[in-house]
Write a structure and sequence with these properties.
single chain; 480 residues; mainly beta; Immunoglobulin-like; six-stranded mixed sheet
Amino acid sequence: MRAKLPVLILILSGWSLAASAQVVTADPVFPVASDQVVVTFHADRGDMGMKDYTGDDVYAYTGLITNLSTGPIDWKHVITGTWKPWSPPDKVKMTRTGANTYTLTIAPSIREFYAVPAEEQILKLAFVFRNDAASRTGRDVGGADIFYDVSQGSAFDVKLLQPDLYSTLVYAGQVIPVQASASVCDSIILYQNGTQLKKVTETTLSHAVTATGSGSFKLVARAWKDNIAKADSAYYFIRTPTVTQDVPAGLRSGVNITGDNSAAFLLYAPSKSNVFVMGDFNNWVHSSEGFMKRSPDGNWYWLEVTGLDPDKEYGFQYLIDEALRIPDPYSTKVLDPWNDKYIEEETYPDLKPYPDGLADNLVSVFQTRPPEYVWKNNSFTAPAADTLIIYEMLVRDFVENHDFKTIRDTLDYLKRLGVNAIELMPVNEFEGNSSWGYNPSMYFAVDKYYGTSNDLKELIDSCHSRGIAVIMDAVLNHAY
């Protein structure tokens, strides 16, 4: 009698969730701290700040993320001298190996190269690439730092190397190279939409898939080791013509909540060929469910989405002409990959995390049934214009906590001063966190550094209960 062994299947989400191709690749694919690794920088990927650079004076500003890092971008053991003035040592000079490719050999081992104590755990390699004059810089998409995972000992991992994007657009009949690698394994099996395509009993798998049919396809590379499985996945979508159809009556620009479980998107995008809406509701992949329809005049793109959870916030972006990712300009909330991490929990509780690796730049957020603020004052009458005594206020500087909630505690003081109107310097989303607000990025979203939109509503409500009007300062002649 054959014993039934327990099987554990682990689906990896960290390796292939990338909106763009990997800026750095490594040989071996799964480097360990005790061995050397050759890192290749692809200058034509990421933010492409060094694309087509012809010089051979390219250096790696490099360090590590370790178990002692206080966060995902807290570099340790930086060996590249100073960032400013730029003074790179020879050991981090890259070797040019071709157009837009440079290599760096980290030897005799990662641990020795960075001089890391034996008791410290190395989690990731960290890079930014620069030329000697510091006039050109190569980073990840959106100007982010570049990271590459370091495996722990002989850990069991699998990675889908090709396609190197989480979601890819292809043409019907196009041949898609597929390559997977495992650190150790008994076998690797390649699946497409659940159907087995190939199986090997070695640590690398290569295959070619011809795109046939239409719609979205999921590729899964599943490696097995001692009855434990790990998998990595990627999607591809076969391009189809954009459907032309009238915009449903009543839709307004932006996200239209059509029910607890549904929403409709409407984007003004004249002279564009196609638009996808990609977000949490479709796993950030190109799909028929996210392929927007075009109005007969060619100016508008729209789409209805169903199956939404009214208690959940959804992040999304528009992908225009397969290249440009933007938030919805009418968003009432956005996520910022650079600045949200510096917002305190007390200021903005339970802030939705940014979808790292799946999106670039600002991400729109909506909810079909968001927490509703119940107004207490519905009959406020603003003071006459010729009687206004206005206090101009920068939320950032007026109270130490830089938030709407704390300002409410000061309203009686302002009332005693005779103030009957507060002019808030811009509180809509602006670049960075610390600003006067005259560098706006989104006009309908409240800047989260000051608190939630309901916090702002409660501040306005509290002002009205004291006979104080609220004037919103806004900058309409430019946006970033």
